[in-house]
From TrEMBL, chain A:
Membrane topology, from the record: Multi-pass membrane protein
Pfam families reported in the protein's UniProt record: MreD (PF04093)
GO biological process: regulation of cell shape
GO CC, alphabetical: plasma membrane
Top-level taxon: Bacteria
Family of the protein in this entry: Belongs to the MreD family.
Principal cellular location given in the protein's record: membrane
Keyword annotations: Cell membrane, Cell shape, Membrane, Transmembrane, Transmembrane helix
Compartment(s) where it occurs, according to its Swiss-Prot or TrEMBL record: Cell membrane
Listed transmembrane segments: 6-24, 31-51, 57-90, 102-128, 140-161
Gene, per the UniProt record: mreD
Protein name per UniProt: Rod shape-determining protein MreD
Biological classification of the source: Bacteria, Bacillati, Bacillota, Bacilli, Bacillales
UniProtKB/TrEMBL annotation, chain B:
Domain Rod shape-determining protein MreC beta-barrel core: 122-275
Organism the protein comes from: Natronobacillus azotifigens
InterPro entries: Cell/Rod_1, Cell/Rod_MreC_2, MreC, MreC_beta-barrel_core
Family membership: Belongs to the MreC family.
Protein name, per record: Cell shape-determining protein MreC
UniProtKB keywords: Cell shape, Coiled coil
PANTHER family per the UniProt record, alphabetical: CELL SHAPE-DETERMINING PROTEIN MREC
GO cellular component: plasma membrane
Residue span of region Disordered: 280-311
Signal peptide: none
Chain's role: Involved in formation and maintenance of cell shape.
Residue runs in coiled coils: 68-112
Gene Ontology biological process: regulation of cell shape
């Protein structure tokens, strides 16, 4: 049963991402600040750290699948989110072997990876001409607010799902987790 | 170990190739979405409506309570307006009747300004703010087609970028560029003739639309209304787009340009109307050449007549 929860949760977060505009004050957006929520991605980071084993790559698979869904549903260019989500989750999965997964590691790793993902997305969109933002404007108006809002959501998601993920992982793979 | 490294490099390279080919695929000028994309958009759109319904309900209740505070003052103002409104209503009826009569004399049944409204609700806005896209809950099954104009009560907000069976994606005015120009008329209050031009795109820094006039016009003042002219072959005539903020010349000083403030609020959207124009659009004519034979003459008449009116 727990196998089904994960894609459903990710789908729910994907749906919520489209509705978040209702809760961001209009005057902030009109002033040029960009708050990009990467809830699906944050959940995937937690997923990699607390659910996946060293030799299973479910998180990378879901990163490809849900990245593609974000591309299709919310943007008009396919492949950008898919590629950047997959490659950064793969990178996090690689780091997982070296690092001990606790709250602080997860916290730092999600800052770094959200920053990396957003920067890769920025680079690709700049390259194909969808955004024409300068690097300095990007860092002030998009990078920092995006990191801030995603950190906040990381804490909420961590509190809600960390224990569940570990439990589901144990059920699924039937081993004692290291955390 | 080196085998694994080579495999990893190979995977990343393969990822790059897939990325480039997918981007290339989606940058093609496609008329329709593929079935898989349509299915995905419909499913997600449907889920979004389910989640959004209780949220909208609560915001409505809160708004209603807010409104109740101002009821007394609003009522006074509205009563005053009602007296003049009756007068206008009568005039409009008379004018409409007269217009119908005159049209029947000319054997004209439909004009460029006629349209069928399709009511829709916004279900989602793209979290990626570089794409000025919103999703609405009406699709092909409700008669929505690509390139139709989307308006609110205050004016135009954008056009349909792609449609699925039950949802469609709207490109907002602030995402317009040179590939989606709008042919517009500017209502000159001092002269009989309207100034003509094109909306070329959106200026991010000024947050205003850029209008380029096809001719040089004297005496365009700030605050004049800008309407769609319907001659671009996509939108009906007479949709309000915005008001002129500043008139200048372009960087070479050759053409006259103006900056336009959109009249609709592009950030606070909830209920919108998709505009299905009754005259065949250029896209419909291209798809179905039979229309051309029947309606071509009529179209020509249309444009000739307009010219005469303006001359």
């Amino acid at each position: 049963m727990s196998r089904l929860y994960l894609p459903l949760l990710l789908l729910f977060l994907l749906v919520l991402q489209g509705i978040v505009f209702n809760f961001i004050p209009n005057n902030l957006i009109q002033a040029g600040w960009m708050f990009i929520v990467h809830w699906v991605f944050i959940f995937l980071v937690l997923f990699t750290l607390f659910y996946d084993l060293e030799d299973t790559y479910y998180s990378v698979f879901f990163a490809i699948l849900f990245g593609l869904m974000i591309d299709v549903v919310y943007t008009s260019v396919i492949g950008v989110y898919m590629f950047s989500y997959a490659i950064v989750i793969y990178f996090v999965h690689g780091l997982r072997k070296i690092l001990h997964a606790n709250f602080y590691v997860a916290f730092l790793l999600s800052i770094v990876s959200v920053g990396l993902v957003d920067f890769i997305i920025y680079l690709i969109y700049t390259f194909i001409g969808i955004s024409d933002m300068g690097m300095d404007t990007y860092f002030v108006y998009r990078f920092l607010p995006t990191i801030a809002i995603n950190l906040f959501s990381f804490i909420i998601l961590h509190v809600m799902f960390k224990k569940k993920l570990v439990r589901w992982s144990n059920q699924r793979f039937d081993v004692k987790s290291s955390t | 170990m080196s085998f694994f490294r080579r495999k990893r490099l190979f995977t990343i390279l393969l990822g790059f190739i897939i990325l480039v080919s997918l981007i290339g695929f989606s940058m093609l000028d496609r008329d329709d979405l593929s079935a898989a994309e349509e299915f995905l958009q419909d499913t997600i759109g449907w889920l979004q409506q389910i989640v959004l319904t209780p949220i909208n309900y609560t915001t409505n209740v809160i708004d209603n309570i807010d409104d109740m505070k101002n009821v007394y003052e609003e009522n006074k103002v509205l009563k005053q307006q009602l007296a003049t409104y009756q007068q206008t209503l009568y005039e409009v009826q008379e004018l409409r009747k007269e217009n119908d009569d005159l049209m029947s004399i000319l054997d004209k049944t439909n004009s460029l300004s006629d349209y069928q409204p399709i009511q829709a609700t916004i279900t989602a806005r793209s979290p990626e703010q570089w794409f000025k896209l919103v999703t609405i809950n009406k699709g092909k099954q409700h008669g929505v087609e690509k390139d139709m104009a989307v308006i609110t009560g205050k004016g135009m907000i954008g056009k349909i970028q792609s449609t699925s069976q039950f949802t469609s994606t709207v490109l907002l005015l602030n995402g317009f560029d040179r590939s989606n120009r709008i042919s517009v008329n500017v209502n000159l209050s001092e002269q009989d003739e309207d100034a003509r031009g094109f909306i070329l795109g959106y200026n991010e820094d000024r947050e205003q639309l850029l209008l380029e006039f096809t001719d040089y016009y004297e005496g365009i003042s700030e605050g004049e209304y800008v309407f769609s002219s319907g001659l671009g072959g996509v939108f009906p005539k007479g949709l309000q787009i915005g008001t002129i903020e500043e008139v200048t010349t372009d960087q070479y000083g050759l053409t006259q340009i103006a900056y336009i403030k959109p009249s609709a609020d592009l950030y606070d959207l909830n209920h919108v109307i998709v505009v299905d124009r009754e005259m065949p659009t250029s896209r419909e004519i291209a798809q179905d050449p039979e229309i051309t034979d029947e309606e071509d003459e009529e179209n020509d008449d249309e444009i000739d007549l307009q010219d005469e009116e303006e001359d």
